[in-house]
Design goal:
With 366 residues, the protein is an alpha/beta fold. It has a six-stranded parallel β-sheet, with helices on both faces. It has a six-stranded parallel β-sheet with strand order 11-10-9-12-13-14, sandwiched between helices. The radius of gyration is 21 Å and the shape is globular. Helix 8 links the parallel strand 9 and strand 10. The longest helix is centred in the N-terminal third of the chain and has 17 residues. The chain has two domains: 165 residues, Glycogen Phosphorylase B (Rossmann fold); 174 residues, Glycogen Phosphorylase B (Rossmann fold), CATH 3.40.50. 39% of the residues lie in helices and 14% in strands. It contains 13 helices and 14 strands.
């Protein structure tokens, strides 16, 4: 069965002011960009706003086709809730709701489809509120939408799911090939920071603190870097997130690589990371948000999967990719485990073979 919407509207609804809701996490926000870029193409003259949490806001602000980024103040609201400061909590929520209502949105497209996003959609006062039907809508979010997209099959990639919600609106246009725009100044600074020489392969060994079970091994990444340098003459740079243990893990990979890899130039946020990855000829990592950033700027990716669902978390289909994964009998799973057997069975040779197949068609980046 082809993934898609089974009950599309006959034509896109009229709208001059559109609110998109996808609050977090970073990887999910990034995977919503192609669908929203398609939406923008169908409504070229509408005011397009995006409600998002702080970690992804800087990246969305660099996209010239997004008119406004509205930041949902999750840290402040969470702090007020945890400290039982009910007056501050209510004041913060009223400010958010009032700000949304004041913009007089005609249409809300809720890609997040949880209770919080549904309440925010309803609070906007928009007469047309579009989201998913169950089971893609969770926590009762469907009660706050006026239109519900029914999707099939139940298992599909996040990219396909998001694109199907746009198709529900009667928009049949395909997503753009590279929907993540990198500002030219950011690209130039990233190129200068990388220095002279051939475009490197980017390795991203870390994950969020809560998903350490998705990490491949230090020795695996180090062996891959050596194999790519010795066999292909291509050096590697190792990227990392802001967490201290993430940087320590990246440094450990560099130390174990015997000079085949170095730490990537430091990036201060997602826009700078996108600029850096746009100059790399290949990106290798586990199931991470930066992997999807790389694919949306057109950098081929090798995705290393263990506990992660390979269908739901497939890379962006418009960018060349390979997925390295082995079935060990208990994966995919939601919670992972300390043993992480499904990641440990991935051999450097398997990853190198996937990398070589992509490098053979990489062409122009040098």
């Amino acid at each position: 069965m082809i993934a898609g919407c089974t009950n599309p509207l006959p034509h896109p609804p009229e709208a001059e002011r559109i609110l998109v809701i996808r609050l977090g996490a970073v990887g999910d926000v990034v995977r919503t960009l192609p669908a929203v870029a398609t939406l923008r193409g169908a409504y070229p003259y509408a005011q397009l706003s995006w409600l998002v949490e702080p970690p992804s806001a800087s990246l969305l602000r660099t996209q010239p086709w997004i008119d406004e980024v509205i930041v949902f103040p999750r840290p402040e609201i969470s702090a007020a809730l945890s400290r039982l400061r009910l007056a501050g909590l209510c004041r913060g929520l009223r400010q958010v709701a009032g700000g949304l209502r004041a913009r007089r949105f005609d249409l809300v497209v809720d890609f997040h489809a949880i209770l919080k996003s549904g309440l925010l959609a309803r609070a906007s006062g928009a007469p047309e509120r579009v989201s998913y039907a169950r089971p893609f809508a969770r926590e009762g979010a469907e009660r706050f939408a006026t239109h519900h997209a029914e999707l099939a099959p139940r298992r599909m990639s996040r990219f396909a799911r998001n694109q199907s919600l746009v198709r529900f609106l009667g928009v049949e246009d395909p997503p753009p090939p590279h929907p993540l725009v990198v500002e030219e100044g950011v690209r130039q600074r990233a190129h200068a920071a990388l220095g002279e020489g051939p475009a490197p392969v980017a390795l991203h060994p870390g994950t969020s603190d809560a998903t350490a079970h998705k990490r491949w091994t230090r020795d695996g990444y180090a062996a891959l870097a050596r194999e790519l340098l010795e066999g292909e003459g291509i050096p590697s740079v190792v990227t990392c997130g802001p967490a201290r243990d993430d940087r320590a893990f990246a440094q450990a990979v560099v130390d174990a690589s015997g000079g085949a890899a170095r730490l990537a130039p430091e990036t201060r946020g997602l826009p700078e990371l996108a600029g850096l990855l746009s100059h790399c000829r290949l990106y290798v990592s586990g199931d991470t948000g930066p992997l999807h950033v790389a694919s949306l700027v057109g950098t081929p990716v090798v995705q290393l999967l263990g506990p992660t669902d390979p269908v739901e978390n497939a890379p962006y289909p418009e960018t060349p990719s390979r997925t390295v994964r082995f079935d060990v009998g208990c994966n995919p799973c939601r919670r992972g485990c300390a043993a992480a057997t499904c990641m440990g069975v991935i051999a450097p040779g398997d990853v190198a073979a996937a990398a070589r197949s992509l490098l053979a068609g990489a062409g122009g980046r040098c």
